[in-house]
C-alpha cells in the first residue's frame, strides 16, 4: 500500500480513535442528562392498617376499601433556582468540546507515530534493496570465480573471500528484515491489520521536496499555530470550564425550591383536605464557600497552564523548524545525480573486477564505501521526512 492508503486505513480502523469517538458520545449523553428535569416525588403516608371506630363515617375509595380510614398523598417537585440547570448544561457542553479536543490531540500524536513508522519501514525496505543489489553482483562474481576455480585460474582463498563477503551482506539483510518485522508489528497495531499479513509500503512520499519549506511561510503559519493545537484549545476550554464552574458553584448558594401538593383524608377537622406547600433550605451554615474557593483556584490554575502550554508551543515550533532546516541543509549537500553515479560506478567496478582489472581488496573497499554512502543518503531523506512530521505535529496541522 501507499502512505496515503495506510493513513486512510488508520483513520478508519484504529481502535484508540474509535474509543476516543465513543468518549465524545458519552459526554454528549451527559449533556442530555443535564437537560432533564428532576422527577416528581410521590408519597403515601398516614395509612392506618386498622379501621378506626367511633369516627364519622366516610365513604370508601373503591369497593369496601378505605371506609373510615385515614390516608394521605403528597406530590413534590424540585425546582432548581439561580439557573443551576442551565449552568450545568453549559458545563457538560464544555466537557463535550474537551472530549473532541482530546480526540484531536490523540489523533495528532498517533499520526506522528504512524508516519514515522511508515518512514522507518520505507527506509528499511530501500536499505534491503541496496544490499540485495550487492548480493546480485556478488552472485554473478561467485559463479564466474567458481568456473575459474575449477579451471585452476584462481586460488581458493579468493573464492572463499568472495563467499565470506556474500555471507556478511546476507547477515546485514537479515538484520534489516528483523527491523522491518518490528516496525510492521507497530504498524499492524495502528492499522488493525491481521498479524499474518505482511506490509510493504511503496517508495512514494519517502523523499520530501525541501524547497516547500520556506522560512517566511512557516513563520506565517506559526503565528496561528495555537489555533490549530488541540492542547492549546484544551487549555482554553479548561479556563472556560473553570469560569462556568465558578458560576455554577455560586448558584449553589441559592436554595432550591420544592413545591408540594398534598391530600389528607380523615387527618383533620376536614374529611378531605387538599393543600399546597413549598420548602427550601435556610442557608445559614453552608454557603458553599469551599466549592466557590476551589472554582476560583481552578481559574487561576487554568491560566497558568495556558501560559505554560503557549510557551511550550513556541519552543516546540522553533526547535522543530531549526531541526528541519539542519536536516535539509545536510540533504542539499548531496549533489543531484550522486546516487545514480554511485550505482553506475558499482557496475563499472563489478565489470572491471570480473575482468581482473581491479583487485579484490579494492573492490571490497568500494563496496563498503558504496553501502556507507547509500546509507547516508537514505538516512538523510529519512531525517528530513521525520523532521517534517515533527514540524506538522508542532504546528498542529499538515504543513
From TrEMBL:
Domain of life assignment: Bacteria
Matching InterPro entries: MdtP/NodT-like, OMP_efflux
GO molecular function annotation: efflux transmembrane transporter activity
Family of this protein: Belongs to the outer membrane factor (OMF) (TC 1.B.17) family.
Record protein name field: TolC family protein
Species of origin: Haoranjiania flava
